[in-house]
Specification:
The structure is a single chain. The chain is of the alpha/beta class. About 40% of the residues lie in helices and about 15% in strands. The longest helix is centred in the last third of the chain and has 17 residues, at about 245-260. Strands 4-3-2-10-11-13 form a 6-stranded parallel sheet, with helices on both faces. The chain has 2 domains: about 5-65 and about 120-165 and about 240-330, 3-Layer(aba) Sandwich (Rossmann fold), CATH 3.40.50; about 70-120 and about 185-220, no CATH class.
Length: about 325
Amino acid sequence: MNDSFNDRPNGYLETIQEGLSALGGFGPGASRGIGSREAQLRRLKGELERAEAIVVGAGAGLSTAAGLIYSGERFERYFGDFAARFGIRDMYTGGFYPFPDEETRWAWWARHIYYNRYVDAPKPVYPKLLSLLRDRDAFVITTNVDHQFQRAGFDKARLFYTQGDYGLFQSVNPGSGKTYDNEEWVMQAMEAQGFVRDANGIFQIPQGGVAMALPTGLIPKCPDDGSPVTTNLRADESFVEDEGWHRASAAYAEFLRRNEARHTLYLEIGVGSNTPVIIKYPFWARTAKNPKAVYACLNYEEAFCPEQIEGQSICIDGDAGEILDALCGMD
């Protein structure tokens, strides 16, 4: 790690430590919130309008609601050839497949990155969330790596992508602490496979199909030393937390500190059980410590809170897109 980063607050580690240290103080009981669904929707609408600060914590469920689905029709449309040849059944597991050579592996990753990073989500869920937060003092922390917040127009200075970005590569030798923008390479790799742009500028598969391997010369390399690269996604300790990551981490820590005693809404959307220490547990802890705070959980079949903060919580079960639609439609 760059020594200069040690002088900045690390919002990532601080918030995880806070959540874990407070977790033992919550009993085993869970609540689905107080009141009917309609009552909780109206309460949340009011909090969105009245809260002095809003912290949004977003997980994979938000992108799923926006149509960025890794299986089914969307997978078959863009990866049907990989499914037929290798038996891969979804984009997530395909990222771990032992492809026979680097040319094939990087053809896969060019498509994976392009369709999950360089195109807008099929449904306007992110723009609707932005409309609800417009002109509010808000900050977003997310475990998503698809860049959809920025594509929708969220302020980059108030975004913290904790787990990386599909739009960045890093060297397999992570000591430099640097990442590299991959947009130009992705576009070249899509064209090399034979994808063609439609009237909207989006790459589509032509009638004759596309190649499943890149020319050897297109296998990406680190621009500094020519070493192999990998995606900048947090999978192990080799994940590079670059200058931009540390800047966002510090900004998040400072936003939390500035608002820890104010009327703050901690709005959790689509966060599952894989990484609750990053968003869910810290949100619970901060709500419990501040009687002015409100915790809201929007999730499909996983909307709940600890009984200890039931009175400060709003839990709405369902598709995040449908919930945001309902909130946008309220007077």
